Structures are given as C-alpha cells and as structure tokens.
User: Fold this.
Amino acid sequence: MYLKKLKLHNFRNYESLNVTLTKGINILYGENAQGKTNLLEAIYVLGLTKSHRNFIDDNLIKKNEDYLTIEGIVNDKKLDNKLNIYIDNKSKILKYNNDTIKKISDYISIMNIIIFYPDDLILIKESPQIRRKYLNLELSQLYSNYFILINEYNKILKLRNDYLKKINKGISKDKTYVDILTGYLIDKSIMIYKLRDKFINKINLYCESIYKDIMNLDGFKVVYNPSIEFDLKNPNLKEYLKQEYDKRFEYDVKILSTSIGPHKDDIEFYLKDKNLKYYGSQGQQRIAVLALKLSEIEIFKKYKETTPILLLDDIFSELDDKKKNNLLKFINKDIQTIITTTDLNNLDKKLIKKSKLFNISNGNIIKIKEVKLDE
Ligand SMILES: Nc1ncnc2c1ncn2[C@@H]1O[C@H](COP(=O)(O)OP(=O)(O)O)[C@@H](O)[C@H]1O
Ligand SMILES: [Mg+2]
Assistant:
C-alpha cells in the first residue's frame, strides 16, 4: 500500500499542507526544526491515531489553534481509500471513506506503517513496557482482533486487581470470584501468548540475515520472554497456568496486583549469547531495532499481502558509509518509503536519482524533483 496524498491543517508547525507522494521513495530534506519529523508524525497519526513520540495529543495541534485535521488517500491493492482524522482538545474523530469509525481496532489495521527513528533505541534500552507497547501496536496492525483481545484482557486484569485489593483490605473474602476472573484472564492470555510467539518466530525468519547484511555479524535473534515459563503446545496449558496463578495468589493479594501474565511479557535482542540491552554498542542496538522493523515488512507482505509504508526519520546521519550502503539494499521502489534528512550528501546519489524530492522549510513543502517512473 502507499500514501498517495496527504493534507494537513493545523498540525504542529503546518498551517496547511497538500502533497502528492510517490509510490516509491520520497525524500524530505531541510534544515533542523523545519517540520520533517512533524510530517512523518502526521502520517503516523493518520494511520495509527496516536503519535510515535510519547506526547499527549494536544501538542499535535498547531500553537494557538483549537483543532487539527489530517487527511490521506491510501492506495491498497489498486483501490483508493480516504482516511481522515480530526483532533481537538476534547475529541478525536476517525473517518474511513467518509464514514465515522467508532472502534479504533477497525481503523488501525487499515493503513500499515513501520517507522524507524533515532529515539527507537529506547525499544532496546528502556523498560519492558515500551516493548509491550510495540508488540501490541504491530500485532494490532496485523490482526484487527488483537487490539480487541488486548482491551478485553486489560479489562479483566483490572477487575482481578481491584478484587485483590478488596481481599487485601478484608472487604471481601471470596476466592471463587478471583478464580473465575483468573480463568477468563488465562483464556485471553493464551491467545495473546500464541500471537506474540508466532510474531516473534516470524521475525526470526528474517532478522538474522538482515542484521548480517547490514552489520556483517552473525547470530542476531529476538527472544520472546514471558514472565513465566510455559509450553504453548501443552494440551493442559490452561490447568498449568491456573496452578501458577494459584501459587502466586497470596503474593498477588499482598502486592495488590497480578504478578504474571502478558502484561509482564518482554522481548530481548541477542547477538549470539550476548544480550544487546546490556552488552551491545549503540550501533549494534540501533541496527537491531532496524532489523526488527525491516523484518516486519516481510511479515506484512505474507500475512496482509501488502507492503506497509516505511518511514525513516534521519537514520542515515548516524551510520558510517559502509552500513549506509548495506542498508540501501533494503530501500527500493517496491515499498513506499519516506526518508528525512538534513543533508542530501548523507544519501547515496543513486538513491536520490530514483526518489521524489521535497524541501521542507518552516512548515512549507516544495517539490523539487519528480521521479521518472521508468528509472
Ligand atoms: N504544536 C506546535 N505548533 C507549532 N509549531 C510546533 C508545534 N509543535 C512543534 N512545532 C515546531 O516544529 C518544529 C520542529 O519540527 P520537526 O519536524 O521536529 O523538525 P525537523 O525538521 O528537525 O524534523 C519546531 O520549530 C517546533 O517549534
Ligand atoms: Mg527531525
């Protein structure tokens, strides 16, 4: 799929913008603080309804304005579809082909986006919460039911935790109710575990060779690390998990929350037996995240029979020439890619030749060069 047209109104430093992108490679260049990242962010918000930066939505609205709109025409399997998002201080309205969409789950699997940006290192370095958020978002783009599943899981988890608090305070004594909730929780958990496990397995089909192609190092893998050990093939998995929850019941009452489950999952990145979180160089970590994201492209191709839109924010400036060239192999006209850079000299001339170029200056966009499609 690709984003054909993008229209912005009052989005960060853009008062209004109307741009036609190419199906292949688009390069946005311009000095710092002109709006390059903002434009990628607008595309991300259009597809996924939230920013990839951890800001609250209000900051997305242009200073001194009360609302913003983002509109895009997304072409998928030769069909044009219109996505539209309106945000003000109180509300967010999502539209698909002019129909208002009430359920986010129905919306976020429409336009598939993979983004890579300098702060992405946090995916390796920071807390597991960030990695779970990543897993949830990617899986929601792949399967719209996953988003519903996670929401249901969170609701039951909250009920269970609230009840644990009541038991702790002596307001309730009835463990049967906890057991019922635990049963529901386990049903959902198994579904989540299976989808996450499947996703990581698929990632591992591709990420080692991608990592090797860029870094020339063997043995990269992503490891799914749930909070307790289990075997997804165990026919008595449900009973087994029930026992695990039972073992921790007293403890859970004491800490007023549920100590195991998908909300405690993590993923880890290894180079052979070296955990990159602790022993990886900045460069190794950066490429690990990149390899993860590039692997996802293959998964989208297989499972959704479409390519996602790839957003690369300022990634070439941090890489040496050799890695830059290795990475270029993965950027081709078969997948719509939008790249930002402050300096065109950071990019390979051949790449520039086959790209559509835009200059970004103070919230304005100027098309510099159209691509000739036969190139
Ligand atoms: N809500 C907003 N209203 C107006 N301007 C904003 C808003 N949020 C950010 N900006 C401006 O956007 C600019 C940064 O844009 P950004 O896309 O991050 O730049 P870069 O081109 O370096 O990627 C800054 O000048 C900042 O003041
Ligand atoms: Mg930027």
Summary: The chain has two domains: 1-112+306-375, 122-305. Residues 122-305 form a domain with the Glutathione S-transferase Yfyf (Class Pi); Chain A, domain 2 fold (CATH 1.20.1050.90).
